[in-house]
Design goal:
16% of the residues lie in helices and 20% in strands. The radius of gyration is 18 Å and the shape is globular. It has 171 residues and is of the alpha+beta class. The chain has a single domain, classed as Peptide methionine sulfoxide reductase (Metal Binding Protein, Guanine Nucleotide Exchange Factor, Chain A), CATH 2.170.150. The protein has 4 helices and 8 strands, in the order H-H-H-H-E-E-E-E-E-E-E-E. The longest helix is centred in the first third of the chain and has 9 residues. The strands form 2 sheets. It has a 5-stranded antiparallel β-sheet. Strands 2-1-8 form a 3-stranded antiparallel β-sheet, with no helix packed on it. The structure holds zinc ion.
């Protein structure tokens, strides 16, 4: 019996894409968030009180209080789905999965954004370090940081909180 089950499992053609559906990887229901769009790139200027009302508490904390999720706890750090990652706050498309790389840091890591202006950069001198903070170019949400120890071709490592990202699959 065991043998048959194993052979049957091996007989399945290997799937090129993740079997996880987009819905399973969604962080929250966007239906009450009128600013969420994967196509509108116009900047949105929304009061923090409004974001606080619309977003889950953990996303609000990371996006607008510059929180950081614990390493190896986010849902995307070792996720290998093929598709696009968007800002979880506003839906702005940020990264393609083909610029994601396996990093031992415990957060999803990318070597380049999808569009140059998808992300904004700010000097961050907190915690006695000089780092470059990354924020969403559309809504201003904190995403994470970018470091200069990434792989070719850019040599950059965008280290992004999973909570700040929404995997939207192949389109
Ligand atoms: Zn955004």
């Amino acid at each position: 019996m065991m043998m048959a089950a194993a052979m049957s499992a091996c007989g399945q053609p290997p799937s090129a894409t993740s079997t996880t559906t987009t819905n399973d990887m969604n962080q929250y229901d966007h239906s009450n968030n009128p600013y969420y769009s994967h196509t509108d790139t116009a900047k949105v200027d929304v009061p923090l009180s409004e974001w606080k009302r619309l977003l889950p508490a953990n996303l609000y904390h990371i996006a607008f209080e510059k929180g950081t999720e614990r390493a190896f706890t986010g849902k995307y750090w070792d996720f290998e789905g093929i598709g696009t990652y968007a800002c979880a706050v506003c839906g702005n498309v940020l990264f393609q999965a083909d610029s994601k790389f396996a990093s031992s840091c415990g957060w999803p890591s990318f070597f380049q954004p999808l569009r140059k202006d998808a992300i904004l950069y700010h000097e961050d001198r907190t915690f006695g370090m000089v780092r470059t903070e990354t924020t969403c170019g559309r809504c201003g949400a904190h995403l994470g940081h970018v470091f200069e120890d990434g792989p070719k071709p850019t040599g950059l490592r965008y280290c992004i909180n999973s909570v700040s990202l929404e995997f939207i699959g192949k389109r």
